[in-house]
Amino acid sequence: MKKIFLIQILAILMVSNLLAQKKAVSAGVTFFDGTWEQLLAKAKAQKKPFWVDVYTTWCAPCKMMAKQTFADAEVGTFTSENFISYKLDAEKGEGETISQKYGVEAYPTFLVFNAEGKLVGKEEGFMDAERFIYVLEKYNKTNKKKKKK
User: Which of 31, 43, 58, 88 could pair with 95 as two cysteines, CB 3.0-4.6 Å apart?
Assistant: First the structure.
C-alpha cells in the first residue's frame, strides 16, 4: 500500500513539474502568425504598433534572443500589452523582400513600426530582457506622444 501511495505522489510531482515547465515556456513573447499584409491589417484595425524580429537560422545572437530574451515573462507581458510581435526569416519568403526594403544588414535586427505601418525605429544585435524592454519602451512612448497630437 505504501508503494502505491509513493508511486502516486511521484507521478503527481512529475506531472506538476512538466506543467510548470510548459507554463514557463509559454510565458514569453507570442508572435503573430500570418503574412505581412495580414500583420499590417491587424495593426491598423487594433491601432497598435508592431515590432519585427528579423533573424536567420544560422545566427547565434538570434538564437540567444529566442532562448533568453523572448522567453522572458516580462518581455512577453510588455510586448503583448503594447505591440504586435512578428518574426521574419531574412532568407526566406517575405523576409527577403522586407529585409531589403528596410536595409537590414545585420542579425538580429528589430524593426519597430507605428500602427499605420511606418517604420519608426531600427535596432541591431543581441539584447537581454531588460535592455529589450527599455528599447521598445522608447518607441512606445514616441508612438503614444504622436497619437496625442
Answer: 88
CATH numeric code, 28-148? 3.40.30.10
pLDDT digits (tens, 9 = 90+) for 10-68: 455 554 544 444 444 458 999 999 999 999 999 999 999 999 999 999 999 999 999 99
- Within the chain, strands assigned E span 50-55, 84-89, 109-113, 119-124
The alpha carbon dihedral of 33, 34, 40, 43 has a sign of negative
Cα separation, 85 vs 73, in Å, equals 14
Contacts of residues 57-64 at CB distance under 8 Å and 24 or more positions apart, as own/partner, are 57/89, 57/91, 59/107, 59/108, 61/107, 61/108, 61/125, 61/126, 62/107, 62/108, 64/126
Q: How many CB atoms lie within 10 A of CB 141?
A: 10
pTM, two decimal places: 0.78
CA 104 from centre of chain: 18
Q: Which residues contact 37 (CB under 8 A, 6 or more apart)?
A: none
Could you state, in order of their start, the residue ranges of all structural domains in the chain?
A: 28-148
The pLDDT score that the predictor gives to residue 23 is 43
